[in-house]
Design brief:
globular, 2% strand, mainly alpha, two-stranded antiparallel sheet
Protein backbone atom coordinates (compact mmCIF):
# COMPACT_ATOMS: atom_id res chain seq x y z
CA UNK A 1 0.00 0.00 0.00
CA UNK A 2 1.31 3.44 -0.97
CA UNK A 3 0.31 6.85 0.34
CA UNK A 4 0.68 9.87 -1.92
CA UNK A 5 2.19 12.88 -0.12
CA UNK A 6 2.67 15.79 -2.50
CA UNK A 7 5.01 14.69 -5.25
CA UNK A 8 6.19 11.66 -3.32
CA UNK A 9 4.84 8.22 -2.46
CA UNK A 10 5.40 6.65 0.95
CA UNK A 11 4.75 3.03 1.87
CA UNK A 12 2.70 2.04 4.91
CA UNK A 13 5.84 0.50 6.40
CA UNK A 14 7.68 3.81 6.12
CA UNK A 15 4.70 5.62 7.66
CA UNK A 16 4.67 3.19 10.59
CA UNK A 17 8.40 3.61 11.14
CA UNK A 18 8.12 7.40 11.07
CA UNK A 19 5.44 7.07 13.76
CA UNK A 20 7.79 4.83 15.77
CA UNK A 21 10.55 7.40 15.35
CA UNK A 22 8.23 10.11 16.69
CA UNK A 23 7.34 7.84 19.63
CA UNK A 24 11.02 7.29 20.47
CA UNK A 25 11.68 11.03 20.39
CA UNK A 26 8.65 11.57 22.62
CA UNK A 27 9.77 8.93 25.12
CA UNK A 28 13.28 10.37 25.18
CA UNK A 29 12.23 14.00 25.67
CA UNK A 30 8.87 13.93 27.47
CA UNK A 31 9.41 10.79 29.58
CA UNK A 32 13.23 11.11 29.87
CA UNK A 33 13.72 7.44 28.98
CA UNK A 34 17.34 7.15 27.83
CA UNK A 35 17.02 10.58 26.12
CA UNK A 36 20.64 10.72 24.97
CA UNK A 37 20.05 7.61 22.88
CA UNK A 38 16.34 7.44 22.09
CA UNK A 39 16.41 11.06 20.86
CA UNK A 40 19.08 10.48 18.17
CA UNK A 41 17.71 7.03 17.26
CA UNK A 42 14.14 8.30 16.93
CA UNK A 43 15.16 11.24 14.77
CA UNK A 44 17.37 9.00 12.62
CA UNK A 45 14.44 6.59 12.14
CA UNK A 46 12.39 9.50 10.77
CA UNK A 47 15.26 10.48 8.45
CA UNK A 48 15.76 6.91 7.22
CA UNK A 49 12.11 6.44 6.30
CA UNK A 50 11.49 9.66 4.42
CA UNK A 51 11.30 8.64 0.73
CA UNK A 52 13.80 9.74 -1.92
CA UNK A 53 16.12 11.50 0.53
CA UNK A 54 19.11 9.33 -0.41
CA UNK A 55 20.34 9.49 3.17
CA UNK A 56 20.33 5.69 3.45
CA UNK A 57 21.87 5.08 0.01
CA UNK A 58 25.42 3.89 -0.54
CA UNK A 59 26.74 7.44 -0.36
CA UNK A 60 24.25 8.64 2.27
CA UNK A 61 25.24 9.77 5.75
CA UNK A 62 23.36 7.10 7.69
CA UNK A 63 24.73 4.29 5.52
CA UNK A 64 28.31 5.53 5.93
CA UNK A 65 27.97 5.85 9.71
CA UNK A 66 26.62 2.31 9.98
CA UNK A 67 28.93 0.63 7.49
CA UNK A 68 32.17 2.32 8.52
CA UNK A 69 31.71 2.85 12.27
CA UNK A 70 29.07 0.53 13.73
CA UNK A 71 29.31 -2.59 11.54
CA UNK A 72 33.07 -2.98 12.25
CA UNK A 73 32.35 -2.52 15.98
CA UNK A 74 34.20 0.79 16.39
CA UNK A 75 31.41 2.83 17.99
CA UNK A 76 30.34 0.17 20.56
CA UNK A 77 33.99 -0.20 21.61
CA UNK A 78 34.44 3.56 22.01
CA UNK A 79 31.28 3.64 24.13
CA UNK A 80 32.76 0.85 26.27
CA UNK A 81 35.85 2.98 26.80
CA UNK A 82 33.58 5.82 27.94
CA UNK A 83 31.69 3.49 30.27
CA UNK A 84 35.03 2.44 31.77
CA UNK A 85 35.88 6.04 32.64
CA UNK A 86 32.57 6.39 34.48
CA UNK A 87 32.62 3.02 36.29
CA UNK A 88 33.84 2.62 39.85
CA UNK A 89 34.90 -0.95 40.55
CA UNK A 90 35.49 -0.22 44.25
CA UNK A 91 32.26 -1.93 45.44
CA UNK A 92 33.27 -5.10 43.60
CA UNK A 93 36.84 -4.96 44.95
CA UNK A 94 35.54 -4.32 48.46
CA UNK A 95 33.43 -7.47 48.31
CA UNK A 96 34.81 -9.74 45.53
CA UNK A 97 32.35 -12.55 46.21
CA UNK A 98 29.60 -10.40 44.68
CA UNK A 99 31.28 -11.07 41.34
CA UNK A 100 29.41 -14.39 41.28
CA UNK A 101 26.10 -12.52 41.54
CA UNK A 102 26.98 -10.70 38.33
CA UNK A 103 27.91 -14.00 36.73
CA UNK A 104 24.67 -15.65 37.86
CA UNK A 105 22.58 -12.95 36.21
CA UNK A 106 24.03 -13.94 32.83
CA UNK A 107 21.85 -17.07 32.93
CA UNK A 108 19.25 -15.02 31.05
CA UNK A 109 21.57 -14.88 28.03
CA UNK A 110 21.76 -18.65 27.70
CA UNK A 111 18.12 -19.35 28.53
CA UNK A 112 17.03 -16.89 25.83
CA UNK A 113 19.56 -18.40 23.42
CA UNK A 114 18.06 -21.84 23.94
CA UNK A 115 14.48 -20.61 23.59
CA UNK A 116 15.40 -18.69 20.42
CA UNK A 117 16.70 -21.89 18.83
CA UNK A 118 13.54 -23.75 19.85
CA UNK A 119 11.30 -21.25 18.05
CA UNK A 120 13.32 -21.34 14.85
CA UNK A 121 16.26 -18.90 14.94
CA UNK A 122 19.64 -20.18 13.80
CA UNK A 123 22.47 -20.37 16.33
CA UNK A 124 24.16 -17.06 15.44
CA UNK A 125 20.89 -15.13 15.55
CA UNK A 126 19.91 -16.89 18.79
CA UNK A 127 23.21 -15.90 20.39
CA UNK A 128 22.67 -12.28 19.35
CA UNK A 129 19.19 -12.35 20.88
CA UNK A 130 20.44 -13.96 24.06
CA UNK A 131 22.89 -11.10 24.70
CA UNK A 132 19.88 -8.84 25.30
CA UNK A 133 19.70 -10.57 28.68
CA UNK A 134 22.92 -8.83 29.65
CA UNK A 135 21.01 -5.51 29.60
CA UNK A 136 24.03 -3.86 27.98
CA UNK A 137 23.33 -1.97 24.75
CA UNK A 138 26.90 -1.61 23.40
CA UNK A 139 27.64 -5.29 24.09
CA UNK A 140 24.43 -6.34 22.33
CA UNK A 141 25.25 -4.25 19.25
CA UNK A 142 28.87 -5.42 19.13
CA UNK A 143 27.90 -9.09 19.48
CA UNK A 144 25.15 -8.82 16.87
CA UNK A 145 27.39 -7.14 14.28
CA UNK A 146 30.04 -9.79 14.82
CA UNK A 147 27.59 -12.70 14.69
CA UNK A 148 24.99 -11.67 12.09
CA UNK A 149 26.59 -8.68 10.37
CA UNK A 150 24.90 -9.29 7.03
CA UNK A 151 21.41 -9.41 8.55
CA UNK A 152 20.46 -5.86 9.54
CA UNK A 153 16.94 -6.90 10.56
CA UNK A 154 18.39 -8.94 13.45
CA UNK A 155 20.80 -6.19 14.52
CA UNK A 156 18.05 -3.55 14.49
CA UNK A 157 15.64 -5.61 16.57
CA UNK A 158 18.34 -6.67 19.04
CA UNK A 159 19.50 -3.07 19.47
CA UNK A 160 16.01 -1.68 20.02
CA UNK A 161 15.23 -4.48 22.49
CA UNK A 162 18.45 -4.01 24.46
CA UNK A 163 18.08 -0.27 24.88
CA UNK A 164 14.33 -0.38 25.45
CA UNK A 165 14.62 -2.84 28.31
CA UNK A 166 17.54 -0.91 29.79
CA UNK A 167 15.23 2.10 29.95
CA UNK A 168 12.47 -0.03 31.49
CA UNK A 169 14.60 -1.48 34.30
CA UNK A 170 12.62 0.38 37.03
CA UNK A 171 9.40 -1.15 35.68
CA UNK A 172 10.50 -4.69 34.82
CA UNK A 173 12.69 -5.58 37.80
CA UNK A 174 10.64 -4.75 40.95
CA UNK A 175 7.81 -7.30 40.39
CA UNK A 176 10.36 -10.07 39.76
CA UNK A 177 12.41 -9.14 42.81
CA UNK A 178 9.33 -9.00 45.03
CA UNK A 179 8.13 -12.38 43.77
CA UNK A 180 11.45 -14.01 44.69
CA UNK A 181 12.11 -12.35 48.08
CA UNK A 182 10.23 -11.92 51.34
CA UNK A 183 9.45 -8.66 53.10
CA UNK A 184 11.84 -9.67 55.88
CA UNK A 185 14.64 -10.22 53.40
CA UNK A 186 14.03 -6.91 51.65
CA UNK A 187 14.40 -5.12 55.00
CA UNK A 188 17.90 -6.49 55.62
CA UNK A 189 20.47 -3.75 56.14
CA UNK A 190 24.04 -4.40 55.10
CA UNK A 191 27.10 -3.07 56.89
CA UNK A 192 29.69 -0.56 55.79
CA UNK A 193 32.04 -1.66 53.01
CA UNK A 194 35.81 -1.63 53.43
CA UNK A 195 37.95 1.06 51.87
CA UNK A 196 39.65 0.09 48.60
CA UNK A 197 43.18 1.37 48.05
CA UNK A 198 44.31 3.25 44.96
CA UNK A 199 46.81 0.46 44.24
CA UNK A 200 43.97 -2.10 44.09
CA UNK A 201 41.99 0.16 41.74
CA UNK A 202 44.95 0.47 39.35
CA UNK A 203 45.93 -3.22 39.43
CA UNK A 204 42.36 -4.40 38.79
CA UNK A 205 41.84 -3.16 35.17
CA UNK A 206 45.32 -4.30 34.18
CA UNK A 207 44.90 -7.71 35.80
CA UNK A 208 41.42 -8.30 34.33
CA UNK A 209 42.67 -7.37 30.84
CA UNK A 210 45.54 -9.85 31.03
CA UNK A 211 43.38 -12.67 32.43
CA UNK A 212 40.58 -12.18 29.89
CA UNK A 213 43.11 -11.83 27.06
CA UNK A 214 44.62 -15.20 27.95
CA UNK A 215 41.40 -17.10 28.72
CA UNK A 216 38.73 -15.50 26.49
CA UNK A 217 40.62 -13.53 23.81
CA UNK A 218 37.46 -12.93 21.77
CA UNK A 219 36.12 -10.84 24.68
CA UNK A 220 39.26 -8.70 24.81
CA UNK A 221 38.05 -5.87 22.51
CA UNK A 222 35.12 -5.11 24.85
CA UNK A 223 36.86 -5.83 28.16
CA UNK A 224 40.09 -4.15 27.03
CA UNK A 225 38.36 -0.88 26.14
CA UNK A 226 36.32 -0.98 29.36
CA UNK A 227 39.44 -1.47 31.45
CA UNK A 228 41.46 1.13 29.53
CA UNK A 229 38.80 3.72 30.28
CA UNK A 230 38.79 2.65 33.93
CA UNK A 231 42.57 2.96 34.10
CA UNK A 232 42.27 6.55 32.82
CA UNK A 233 39.96 7.26 35.77
CA UNK A 234 41.76 5.41 38.56
CA UNK A 235 45.33 6.41 37.70
CA UNK A 236 44.88 9.95 38.97
CA UNK A 237 47.28 11.29 36.34
CA UNK A 238 45.20 10.93 33.16
CA UNK A 239 42.33 13.24 34.02
CA UNK A 240 42.21 14.80 30.56
CA UNK A 241 41.87 11.41 28.90
CA UNK A 242 39.27 10.32 31.44
CA UNK A 243 37.29 13.52 30.95
CA UNK A 244 37.43 13.22 27.15
CA UNK A 245 36.50 9.53 27.14
CA UNK A 246 33.59 9.95 29.52
CA UNK A 247 32.23 13.18 28.07
CA UNK A 248 33.08 14.54 24.59
CA UNK A 249 34.08 11.21 23.01
CA UNK A 250 31.20 9.37 24.64
CA UNK A 251 28.72 12.00 23.42
CA UNK A 252 30.05 11.85 19.85
CA UNK A 253 29.90 8.05 19.84
CA UNK A 254 26.34 8.12 21.20
CA UNK A 255 25.18 10.48 18.45
CA UNK A 256 26.79 8.32 15.77
CA UNK A 257 25.33 5.17 17.33
CA UNK A 258 21.85 6.70 17.16
CA UNK A 259 22.31 7.60 13.49
CA UNK A 260 23.63 4.17 12.60
CA UNK A 261 20.85 2.31 14.41
CA UNK A 262 18.29 4.58 12.74
CA UNK A 263 19.69 3.48 9.37
CA UNK A 264 18.78 -0.12 10.23
CA UNK A 265 15.22 0.74 11.18
CA UNK A 266 13.66 1.20 7.76
CA UNK A 267 10.17 -0.12 7.12
CA UNK A 268 11.28 -3.01 4.93
CA UNK A 269 13.95 -4.12 7.43
CA UNK A 270 12.22 -3.66 10.75
CA UNK A 271 8.55 -4.51 10.22
CA UNK A 272 8.75 -8.30 10.27
CA UNK A 273 7.39 -11.10 12.40
CA UNK A 274 10.95 -11.86 13.50
CA UNK A 275 11.17 -8.39 15.08
CA UNK A 276 8.20 -9.11 17.34
CA UNK A 277 9.70 -12.46 18.29
CA UNK A 278 13.01 -10.80 19.20
CA UNK A 279 11.27 -8.15 21.29
CA UNK A 280 9.45 -10.88 23.25
CA UNK A 281 12.58 -13.00 23.60
CA UNK A 282 14.44 -9.91 24.78
CA UNK A 283 12.10 -9.32 27.70
CA UNK A 284 12.32 -13.04 28.53
CA UNK A 285 16.12 -12.76 28.55
CA UNK A 286 16.08 -9.71 30.79
CA UNK A 287 13.48 -11.13 33.18
CA UNK A 288 15.31 -14.44 33.60
CA UNK A 289 18.61 -12.60 34.11
CA UNK A 290 17.00 -10.62 36.95
CA UNK A 291 15.55 -13.81 38.40
CA UNK A 292 18.87 -15.66 38.12
CA UNK A 293 20.72 -12.95 40.00
CA UNK A 294 18.03 -12.73 42.69
CA UNK A 295 17.94 -16.50 43.23
CA UNK A 296 21.73 -16.58 43.57
CA UNK A 297 21.32 -13.74 46.03
CA UNK A 298 19.06 -16.08 48.02
CA UNK A 299 21.93 -18.56 48.17
CA UNK A 300 24.21 -15.83 49.52
CA UNK A 301 21.52 -14.90 52.04
CA UNK A 302 21.46 -18.45 53.40
CA UNK A 303 25.26 -18.86 53.41
CA UNK A 304 25.69 -15.57 55.26
CA UNK A 305 23.11 -16.47 57.92
CA UNK A 306 20.83 -13.69 56.74
CA UNK A 307 23.40 -10.88 56.56
CA UNK A 308 23.22 -10.39 52.77
CA UNK A 309 20.10 -8.86 51.26
CA UNK A 310 19.23 -11.14 48.31
CA UNK A 311 17.88 -8.19 46.30
CA UNK A 312 21.42 -7.12 45.42
CA UNK A 313 21.65 -10.17 43.15
CA UNK A 314 19.10 -8.58 40.82
CA UNK A 315 21.64 -5.82 40.15
CA UNK A 316 23.85 -8.42 38.46
CA UNK A 317 22.46 -7.35 35.09
CA UNK A 318 24.65 -4.83 33.29
CA UNK A 319 22.31 -1.84 33.40
CA UNK A 320 24.62 0.45 35.42
CA UNK A 321 23.62 2.16 37.65
CA UNK A 322 19.88 1.77 37.02
CA UNK A 323 19.64 -1.76 38.43
CA UNK A 324 21.50 -0.69 41.58
CA UNK A 325 19.14 2.25 42.01
CA UNK A 326 16.15 -0.08 41.75
CA UNK A 327 17.54 -2.20 44.60
CA UNK A 328 18.31 0.91 46.65
CA UNK A 329 14.79 2.28 46.15
CA UNK A 330 13.13 -1.03 47.01
CA UNK A 331 15.24 -1.33 50.15
CA UNK A 332 14.29 2.15 51.31
CA UNK A 333 10.63 1.48 50.63
CA UNK A 334 10.88 -1.29 53.23
CA UNK A 335 13.17 0.62 55.63
CA UNK A 336 14.05 4.29 55.13
CA UNK A 337 17.43 3.75 56.83
CA UNK A 338 18.50 0.99 54.43
CA UNK A 339 21.39 1.88 52.11
CA UNK A 340 21.99 -0.86 49.55
CA UNK A 341 23.28 1.19 46.60
CA UNK A 342 27.00 0.53 46.97
CA UNK A 343 26.41 -3.13 47.87
CA UNK A 344 24.32 -3.51 44.71
CA UNK A 345 26.99 -1.78 42.61
CA UNK A 346 29.35 -4.73 43.19
CA UNK A 347 27.25 -7.25 41.24
CA UNK A 348 26.14 -4.47 38.88
CA UNK A 349 29.65 -3.71 37.60
CA UNK A 350 30.44 -7.43 37.70
CA UNK A 351 27.50 -7.85 35.34
CA UNK A 352 29.15 -5.51 32.83
CA UNK A 353 32.23 -7.72 32.83
CA UNK A 354 30.12 -10.88 32.80
CA UNK A 355 27.94 -9.90 29.83
CA UNK A 356 30.96 -8.76 27.81
CA UNK A 357 32.74 -12.03 28.59
CA UNK A 358 29.67 -14.08 27.65
CA UNK A 359 29.44 -12.17 24.38
CA UNK A 360 33.11 -12.82 23.72
CA UNK A 361 32.67 -16.54 24.34
CA UNK A 362 29.76 -16.72 21.90
CA UNK A 363 31.65 -14.69 19.28
CA UNK A 364 34.69 -16.94 19.68
CA UNK A 365 32.59 -20.05 19.18
CA UNK A 366 30.28 -18.87 16.40
CA UNK A 367 31.77 -15.95 14.46
Amino acid sequence: MMFEVGLFAITWQQAVMIAIGLLLVYLGIAKEMEPLLLGPIGFAVILANLPLSGITGDSGLLYIVYKELIYPGIIPLIIFLGIGTMTDFSPLLANPKTFLLGAAAQVGIFLALGLSILIGFDLSAAASIGIIGGADGPTAIYAATQLVGERPEIIAAVTVSAYSYMALVPIIQPPIIKALTTEKQRKIKMGKMREVSKKEKIIFPIGVTIIVGLIVPSALPLIGMLMLGNLFQTSGVMDRLSDTGGNALMDIATILLGLGVGFLMTGGTFIRLSTLKILLLGIFAFATATAGGTLFGQLYYKLSDGEINPMIGAAGVSAVPMASRVVQKMGQEEDAESHLLMHAMGPNVAGVIGSATAAGILIGLLA
